[in-house]
Amino acid sequence: MKILYWDTFAGISGDMALGSLIALGADPEKIIEQLHSIGLNEFRLDVRSRQVQGIQATDIDVVLLNELQLESDHSHEHEHEHEHEHEHEHEHEHKHEHEHSHEHDHSHKHDHSHNHNRFLPDIQKMILSGSLSDRSQKNALRVFDVLAEAEAKVHGTTLDKVHFHEVGAVDSLVDIVGTCIALDLLDIEEIRVSTLPWSKGFVQCAHGTLPLPAPATLMLLRGFKFRESGITGELITPTGASLMKALAQQSNFPEMVIQNVGYGSGKNDYGIPSLLRGVIGEV
């Protein structure tokens, strides 16, 4: 049996999770192709390697494109043979706009507000509409189910009335569904996670200023063991928490033969490496 162990010494977010799986060998082109099949087309997945305190990691950015940008990209492909060089520079410009993406579950550029207005049935319909494998579909649906349950309890509403704000945005959808696709591509049969780091502070979101860990995050992680990190700032996002709640169990490092190790990069600097370490092993 193939097991993935997420070492969450610096927390976990959706982009860190997906980055760790790409670092472990999941093909980003196949992930993008399957995301397109469910109607997620208005993005470009920027995947690059970078060093975090001397450790080589995979960093991802979900670059959102409006219709004008899509038309511009199309025209540049025909007008400039050196388009790839310009596109690379353009992605770096967007990279700075998304430096907060470890916290992007809570904040996002408002000019894409039409991507935030999604309810659970909308997302379920998307997931079932494409060419995802049965396992990818099942896992993605489970992640959004547990997230909806947590949001409903926090906000005192029902599942059908839960309004996904930030987590309904394209970048978070790419992170969550993309992670489920990557897990299937790597044929992961079980996920285990380490003890989680507790942090403090506040975060801005659609509902205003909220304490950390964010209420939905904490609701999701009932039953998980934490340790004090001494860090002020968001280490675990609702996206990261929902992935763990739906797909993983917490344990010590399992007795297994290690096959591969990969690191997904976060965007914050709290004095420790902003990394999620993924270890694949065989039991």
Automatic annotation (TrEMBL):
Which domain of life does this protein belong to? Bacteria
- Which keywords accompany this UniProt record? Lyase, Nickel
Is Lyase one of the keywords? Answer: yes
Query: Signal peptide position in this chain?
Result: none
Q: Which intervals carry biased composition (Basic and acidic residues)?
A: 72-108
Task: Tell me the GO molecular function terms.
Answer: lyase activity
Region annotation Disordered: where it falls in the sequence: 72-116
The reply to whether Chloroplast figures as a keyword in the UniProt entry is: no
Q: What is this protein called?
A: LarC family nickel insertion protein
Source organism per entry reads: Desulfosporosinus acididurans
